[in-house]
Design goal:
- The protein is α+β, with helices and mostly antiparallel strands.
- 34% of the residues lie in helices and 18% in strands.
- The protein has 33 helices and 41 strands.
- The strands form 14 sheets. It has a 12-stranded mixed sheet with strand order 5-4-3-6-2-1-7-8-9-10-11-14, sandwiched between helices. A 4-stranded mixed sheet has the order 36-37-41-40, with helices on one face.
- Helix 8 packs across helix 9.
């Protein structure tokens, strides 16, 4: 008979008495065990065996050996041996021997063995017990039969005398298998690493011939097995569970929580361990192993106040796990956005994220640590930029965290990303030496290279200037392109130490000498240079002349204040070089000073003239003039004289300052300089116009003289005096070479010359002048002359003169009363305010002639035939003597027209004029007369 150290007989009798007294109790126990076998614990055999071994180990981590012996699975462990209370727990479906200091040694979880056996045995140094389905059926045959032989296995316990424990082990669970043993061991081998991590009470697990070891040092657990080693960073917390929260079949007053993070590869497909695996799926980067209230199946957490308490404390401890990692690895432990995989997962994710946001664990650029709630990260991977901004932006995270691999984690922590525009805003008003700013521009350059929006946002970057100011944008600042210095207050020149190509892409202007010279600051300084020249003048002169030496002059530089020979400050364009030939041709009181000789000696002649100092005559040019505002003498009159405003202005300045007796020398200067000569000879240009009207020889305007070889103007203009100038210079300056009428001034001048009785003019010249006047008469408005040139060649009073508009009227008018002009009668009458002859003369034909058809006149017919002219259809009245009565006198004329009917004296001259008028061939009247006299080809061709 077996010894019974654990009092199993009393336990059996108690259960049997309960069953016999109440068959219902038997069925309840059978059903409960069946539930545990078929549902809750069917796949948790190794978990429960390992948990029991861990619980038994106590303070010294133990060893679990799993092996197959004679068809049995044997699980041997070290640690505390089997006790009577433990046996009682094994034989009870509703109780557990776990105390506040253990976590499940032989509790309800032992039912997991029923998945592989119906006759489990436990052998220990303190004794052994066994369970058996067959012996239970024998003990209660009627009850067993009522359930078809299905009985609760773990309710009736018997003693066993087995004592052959493996050496070094204290307890062994022996399970005669109903399943394939090798396959079961293979399944166990896959589960061992997770169990070793979850159960610190075990240091080694052996499965068949394979062994897994667990070591821990400095918070790092190393699991070593047949496949190699795996490292886990762990952090544990624990404490007393408030008594008000104790609940559940496995609740206890002491709680623990361990966070474990795989250091070698990411955690995937994980579940909550309580402390062994549950079915609660988890998405956190680290594994939680905690003493949580669980359902009897040990698959699910009993969500409630106790579970929430432990989960909250675990979440609060999560940042401590994070801070144990190197700074660059910490974001790997941040739960990324996504749907929770279970209710517990959702609770933990929220709690962990909340704890992480408040704890100071993120590395700052400054080397300190910050909580995500007070941090910000640069939205661009730039180590240099972060380093530069560490003292500018509070809470700026280390440059490592700007890399893409950290972005999702920081987003989950709600760390704001600092855009380029925010960086620019943070830099507004920041000091810093220019070299620091150059480094900032260098750090921003890669962003500007790839992101046009970023470049736009950089348009408000501050820029340090050479004069110590800090401006709010690169736009409009000047970036020196060469190594010369500029000292000018107000000039927006980038400090040389801050100069960087990025500024050019953001709106700065590459400033060579030309750009500096054209800058607003220089122009404004030049414009105000006369305000206080004693204070700023020398420096400004030196700066501007240095720039001009490199970039050339500008028209507006004439405003630059320069010292004159008397030490006074004057505009540059009001000064002449000390040795300038221009000084010799100017009026004595001309407002042109002499430049200080020392300054003239210091700078090249070309530099001084480029700022407007006079060395000769100055030419003003404007390619897009809008009004006569070029400081040219009488320019407004020139504009008014033109039919259309000029599209280009090129004129010589200060012509009105030339002494009246110095014009030959002045013209010589102009002709010697290609620039001024071009202005003189420009067609319809200002300079030629002004010289012809206002420059003088012997007090007479140049336009009132003619060249000696302009004989066609003899009498109208006098020959120019000998001034030792070539004809082409004189002609360009306005001395007449031919008859030209350009404007009202020319018309007025010619009318005065025609009406001058002292001038002896040829009849042909008078006719040409009147013809020229007729061409421009409609475009001018002048005062009518007092005297006009008439057919007799004299200059007659205008009151007695008419303009001949009908040629036959000349027969009754004296020559000294008829303007010497041919054609354009109405235009000339309007210009000269003279009446037309037809308005003053109304003569009548005396006597009757013979009405003749033109074709009846043989000579007329032959003449028209030779000229190819059709004979008029209307007749002609032929008179032996044609007499016309006018103002009480009778005049014998050669032809006349009365009531549109031509009258002609019976003479070649009379008939020819009447025929020319009737055929509209007035210009051929003399030809008609010759052919009527002798209608032969010889006359026509000769």
């Amino acid at each position: 008979m077996s010894r019974d150290p654990f009092g199993t007989e009393a336990l059996r009798e108690s259960v049997l008495a309960a069953w016999r007294g109440s068959p219902t109790r038997f069925r309840e126990d059978a059903n409960a065990e069946e539930d545990l076998r078929l549902g809750g614990y069917r796949d948790r055999l190794l978990v429960e065996l390992a948990q029991n071994a861990s619980d038994a180990a106590g303070d010294t981590p133990g060893v679990l050996r799993l092996s197959l012996v004679d068809g049995e699975l044997r699980a041997a462990n070290t640690g505390s041996p089997l006790t009577a209370s433990g046996v009682a727990a094994l034989a009870s479906l509703r109780a557990s021997a776990k105390s506040t200091d253990t976590v499940g040694q032989f509790g309800v979880g032992f039912a997991a063995v029923l998945a592989v056996t119906d006759a489990p045995r436990v052998v220990s140094t303190s004794g052994g017990v066994l369970f058996s389905a067959s012996r239970t059926r024998q003990a209660v045959p009627e009850l067993a039969s009522a359930r078809g032989g299905d009985v609760p296995v773990l309710r009736l316990v018997w003693p066993t005398d087995e004592a052959d424990l493996p050496a070094g082990f204290d307890t062994e669970v022996r399970l005669p298998l109903k399943v394939d043993g090798p396959s079961l061991l293979a399944e166990f081998a896959e589960q061992v690493p997770d169990l070793l991590l979850a159960l610190p009470g075990l240091r080694r697990v052996e499965v068949g011939s394979d062994t897994w070891e667990r070591t821990e040092d400095g918070g790092v657990v190393v699991l070593t097995g047949p496949a190699g080693s795996a490292r886990w960073r762990v952090h544990r917390v624990g404490g007393e569970l408030p008594s008000s929260l104790v609940q559940g079949v496995e609740s206890r007053a002491h709680w623990t929580a361990c966070w474990a993070w795989p250091m070698d590869e990411p955690l995937t497909g994980d579940v909550l361990h309580a402390p062994t695996p549950t079915d609660e799926k988890m998405s956190l980067p680290a594994r939680l192993i905690a003493t949580l209230p669980v359902e009897p199946s040990r698959r699910r957490v009993l969500v409630g106040a106790a579970a929430s308490y432990v989960l909250d404390r675990a979440a609060l401890a999560y940042p401590d796990l994070v801070t144990a990692l190197p700074a660059v690895d910490r974001t790997a432990l941040v739960p990324l956005p996504g749907f929770p995989l279970s209710e517990v997962d959702g609770l933990l994710r929220d709690g962990v994220l909340a704890a992480l946001r408040k704890a100071s664990w993120l590395p700052l650029a400054s080397g300190d640590w910050a909580a995500p709630a007070s941090a910000k990260v640069l939205d661009a991977p730039s180590e240099d930029l972060v380093e530069l901004l560490e003292d500018v932006v509070p809470g700026l995270l280390d440059a490592e965290l700007t890399l893409p691999e950290h972005a999702k984690a920081l987003a989950a922590l709600e760390v704001p990303r600092m855009s380029v525009s925010e960086v620019v805003a943070a830099l507004a008003g920041v000091g810093g030496d220019p070299e620091w700013w150059r480094q900032v521009y260098q750090a921003l350059t890669p962003l500007a290279d790839v992101d046009s929006a970023a470049r736009e946002e950089m348009g408000s970057l501050p820029v340090p200037l050479a004069d110590g100011r800090l401006v709010s944008s690169p736009r409009g600042v000047l970036l020196l392109s060469s190594d010369f210095s500029v000292e000018l207050s107000g000039m927006r020149v980038v400090h040389p130490a801050a100069a960087h190509p990025l500024l050019l892409r953001l709106g700065a202007t590459e400033a060579g000498p030309a750009e500096l010279l054209d800058s607003d600051a220089v122009r404004e300084a030049v414009h105000r240079s006369l305000d206080d020249p004693a204070m700023d003048g020398p420096d400004l002169v030196r700066t501007v002349l240095s720039l001009v030496a490199r970039a050339g002059g500008r028209p507006w530089l004439g405003e630059l204040a320069l010292p004159d020979a008397a030490g006074e400050w004057r505009r540059a364009d009001e000064l002449a070089l000390p040795d300038s030939a221009l000084l010799s041709v100017l009026e004595a009181d001309a407002p042109i000073g002499v430049l200080d000789s020392a300054l003239a000696a210091e700078w090249p002649r070309s530099v001084l003239t480029d700022v407007g100092v006079l060395d000769g005559f100055t030419v003003v040019e404007d390619d897009a003039p809008t009004e006569p505002d070029h400081d040219l003498a009488d320019e407004g009159y020139w504009w008014d004289a033109a039919e259309e405003p000029p599209s280009h202005v090129r004129g010589i300045r200060d012509l009105d300052l030339v002494a009246r007796d110095k014009w030959p020398d002045a013209l010589r200067l102009m002709a010697a300089d290609p620039v001024t000569w071009r202005a003189v000879t420009e067609p319809d240009g200002y300079t030629g116009w002004w010289l012809a009207r206002y420059a003088t020889f012997d007090g007479v305007p140049l336009g009132s003289w003619r060249l000696p070889d302009a004989a066609g103007l003899d009498g109208l203009y006098d020959v120019v005096p000998d001034v030792d100038l070539p004809p082409h210079v004189l002609a360009a300056a306005g001395v007449r070479t031919s008859l030209t009428v350009l404007d009202e001034d020319d018309v007025t001048d010619l009318l005065g010359r025609l009406g001058d009785p002292e001038r002896k003019l040829s009849d042909a010249l008078v006719l040409r002048v009147h013809a020229a006047l007729a061409e421009v008469a409609d475009a001018v408005s002048v005062e009518p002359p007092d005297r006009v040139r008439v057919l007799t060649g004299e200059a007659a009073p205008a009151d007695d003169v008419v303009v001949l508009d009908l040629p036959w009227l000349l027969g009754v008018l004296p020559g000294n009363q008829v303007l010497a002009a041919e054609g354009a009668a109405e235009v000339l009458a309007e210009l000269l305010a003279l009446p037309l002859a037809s308005e003053e003369v109304s003569g009548e034909v005396v006597g009757e002639g013979d009405e003749v058809v033109w074709s009846d006149l043989g000579a007329v017919r032959l003449a028209c035939d030779l000229l190819g002219v059709e004979l008029p259809i209307s007749p002609v009245i032929v008179h032996d003597e044609l007499v016309v009565a006018f103002e009480g006198e009778q005049h014998e004329v050669s032809w006349w027209v009365a009531d549109d009917v031509p009258h002609a004296a019976d003479s070649p001259e009379g008939l020819a004029r009447a025929l020319a008028w009737a055929t509209g061939r007035w210009a051929d009247r003399h030809t008609f007369a010759a052919l009527i006299t002798d209608p032969t080809p010889t006359v026509l061709l000769g």
